[in-house]
Amino acid sequence: MTQFSESELTEAVVESFDATPDARAKFLLQELVTSLHDYVRKTGLTFEEWDYAIDFLTRTGHKCTDIRQEFILLSDVLGVSMLVDAVNHRDRAGATETTVLGPFYVGEHKVMPHGTDISPRNQTGEKMFVQSRVTDNHGKPIAGVPVDVWHADNDGFYDSQKPNYDETGPSARARFVTDADGRFTFRTILPCSYPVPTDGPVGEMLLQTKRHPMRPAHVHFLVNAKGYEPLITHVFIGGDKYLESDVVFGVKDELIAKVEQRNDPAMPDGTKAAAPWHLMTYEFHLKPGGGIAPKPLGTKVVETA
Q1: Which of 3, 47, 104, 191 has its CA 20 to 30 A from that of 298?
Q2: What is the pLDDT of residues 122-147, one digit of tens each?
Q3: For residues 103 and 84, what is the distance between their CA atoms, to the nearest angstrom?
Q4: Three-class secondary structure of residue 281 per DSSP
Q5: What's the Cα-to-Cα distance from 131 to each of 15, 86, 105, 126, rounded to whole Å?
Q6: 33: phi then psi, degrees, rounded to nearest 5
Q7: Which SS3 state, helix, strand or coil, does residue 70 take?
Q8: pTM for this one?
Q9: Both 38 and 173 in a single domain?
Q10: Cα 106 versus chain centre, distance
Q11: Does residue 51 lie in a domain region?
């Protein structure tokens, strides 16, 4: 008869999943048990610590709603979200680096003409012109590619976080389709760094461990070309003070763009500029292959990174 002692318990629990019909599920469960048990033994986990962990996870679940996913936020700040992304994109073969989708992708965006101002209602943000290009990983331009873009306004919030989103509609988000040379352009405002939500258990953990909740300023891009792997990435604003300490660990050197401040009287498409503006230039390189573009996380919005 098996003795459920410290030395034999793990083996017994692992064996209890031996009849799992799905081989991948069996592997995942058995590895999870092994890792959890190793953690308990290595740390000498106390009853008080175990009770706190159960309470923390319970409160994390209670914080989740149709518009809030605290468990994804927990995954983000523990680096798990970026690690899952990394192990699924190990060989980039010259293609642009990936990063997390983030919580504010709301699905396919409305197609807009090149040069459109996607933040027309924002009167306080500094203007920015984005000129970009999509190529394969050898530099050959790819035409007719849908590119979704979205970012936070200069108040640090995404449109879908705001209570009047259903009435006002999208802002600082759109879809553009690349031209014959793989190019697309748009106008917007310069995004700013912003905090992840801190009013729940994950925010409590950040506070207690003296970690800040900030993400560096960035623009999201989802590039989805037929015959290539979907590219999910951010382009970060160079010089942001949180680039070295992104709370969700999403920054990669290749994804940092030098955004120039310009004083020209007109932007590259001829739009007159009444004040100094910023120019972002970035080129995306796609990896041959396939895949399905992601769906939004949750419903209208999931408040995480």
Answers
A1: 191
A2: 878 899 999 999 999 999 999 999 99
A3: 16
A4: strand
A5: 56, 27, 21, 17
A6: -60, -45
A7: helix
A8: 0.89
A9: no
A10: 13
A11: no
